[in-house]
Amino acid sequence: METGKKRTRIVVSVLVMCGLMVFSLLAIAGNLEPSAPPGPTMKTLDEVEPRIPLSPRPQYEIGTDPNNLLIITKPGSYYLTGNIIGEPNKNCIRIEANNVTLDLMGYSIMGVPGSKSGIVICEILPIEEVPFTSTIRNGSICMMGTNGLEALVYIPHFNPAGSGGKDGPTKTEGIARLNLWLEELSVYDNGGHGVSYQNIEEFPHFGGNLQLRGVSVYNNGGHGVYVEDRQDVMVKLDGVELTGNGGSGMYIIAMMTNVDAYSTTTGHNGGNGMYLKAQGRSSVHLKDMSFVDNDVNGLGIVGESHDLLEDVTFTHNGGHGMIILGMMTNVDAYGTTSGYNGGSGIVISGRGNLDKCSAVGNGGVGIQVGQGSTITGGRVNNNEFHGIQVSANCRLVGNTCEGNGKGAIGIQEPAGIYATGNGNRIEGNHVVGNKVGIDVDGTDNLIIKNSAMGNSTNNYDVTAGNGVGPIIGTSDVDSSDSPHANYDF
Fold first, then answer.
1. What are the tens digits of pLDDT across the range 325-345?
2. Rounded to an integer, what distance in angstroms lies between the CA atom of residue 134 and that of residue 298?
3. Residue closest to 131 by CA, chosen among 42, 39, 205
């Protein structure tokens, strides 16, 4: 009997403990009844694609008029949902808003006979101190009657009505800046320029910015890229192709210009590969670029500039491979090659610092530089006129000049190295098989440690009044005690 009672007590205790545990769990969990029916869990279409589809939808500030198929008048991110086909006497898309991004989504903006420009970005706004920025990416603009893409800044600088007194509104000074970013675009077969960027406001303004990345601009009737800015403009090219355009691959005219171009090709254009004219000072940095088979010059720069060229190639251009004109110009070039151009290979009217550069088979002078230049470790071969031509106070060290001047007839006999002025140092160069080896017309030049062989007229033609190391033959090498001897063999 006692054992039965104990068993009963144990069962009751276990039941009590289980009840306490259930009560505790319910207290922690709270009310398990839902307070309201469950809401929708799917995202809305605007949440999935918050950008604005580019179609005539007035609620998105997209309109049209007799001159434009579509007009964007509100900032935002827009995208195409299909190709846009132009109409005669109309632009396809006009952008009049700041901070607009347009993604073509791989589609094309295509012209028809008589159509105008593909995209027109026009800043006609009150004076602002903030930049006017547009980004266009990922598609193609082609076969338009005028320009593929046209960006224009013009701000009507007028005071409010009546503020000008009896003579009406008066102009005021203002500030403007146009930033245009182009990415992963093809712009081709347009009747005018591929890309036209103009900041023509006549009053003082901040300079503009134009950046092209992964863009191909080809077979357009005008220039591939045309840039005009009455103040300063910054241009950056990265992985760009400018080919087969009727004008120059890129044509820039501005007060001051800064250009950075990397991994870019400009070739087969009807003008220059790239032409720059700055009324003030410009700065150009080119790296891993090629200028090939342009009808005029590969690269032309006019005005005062500070330029850096790294591993740049100029070949088969109709004029000079590269010509930079400006007495205050400074050019640093490393590993640059200029070959088989119709004119000279490299022409720098100012000061050049050229290291391990080559000029081969050009129709004029291989390398021609101005006062105070340095040329070291160059290879200058088979050019029609002089191999290297310098003026005054230059330093030429360790260059090889071979076979230059063979095609020059009826003019001054060309030389492997030709110095026209005074104060040059010509040291340790090797001149072989030229008309003249080393020709020095000025005075107070230093000519030492050079070697000359097989030059058809003279190995050395040096006027009096220069410092010339002893000129000895190879048989006299062991007997010469001068560390500055020039060799003649």
1. 987 899 999 999 999 999 999
2. 30
3. 205
| Residue given tokens 């007028």 in the structure block | 158
SS (H, E, C) the chain: CHHHHHHHHHHHHHHHHHHHHHHHHHHHHCCCCCCCCCCCCCCCHHHHCCCEECCCCHHHCEEEECCEEEEECCCEEEECCCCEECCCCCEEEEECCCCEEEECCCCEEECCCCCCCCEEEEECCCCCCCCEEEEEEEEEEECCCCCCEEEEECCCCECCCCCCHHHCCCECCCCCCEEEEEEEEEEECCCCCCEEEEECCCCCCCCEEEEEECCEEECCCCCCEEEEEEEEEEEEEECCEEECCCCCCEEEEEEEEEEEEECCEEECCCCCCEEEEEEEEEEEEEECCEEECCCCCCEEEEEEEEEEEECCEEECCCCCCEEEECCCCEEEEECCEEECCCCCCEEECCEEEEECCEEECCCCCCEEECCCCEEECCEEECCCCCCEEECCCCEEECCEEECCCCCCCCCCCCEEEEECCCCCEEECCEEECCCEEEEECCCCCEEECCEEECCCCEEEEECCCCEECCEECHHHCCCCCCCCCEEEC
**Are domains 60-296 and 324-489 of this chain identical in fold?**
yes
Domain chopping of the chain, boundaries: 60-296, 324-489
pLDDT single digits (tens) 30-62: 555 556 555 555 545 454 567 898 764 444 446
* CATH code for residues 60-296: 2.160.20
Q: Compute the distance between CA of residue 390 and CA of residue 393 in angstroms, rounded to an integer.
A: 9
- First-to-last alpha carbon distance for the chain, in angstroms, is 135
Q: Which tokens in the block code for residue 200?
A: 């023509």
CATH of domain 324-489: 2.160.20.10
| Banded pLDDT at 162 (limits 50, 70, 90) | very low
Take residue 430 and report the two structure tokens written for it: 């090797």
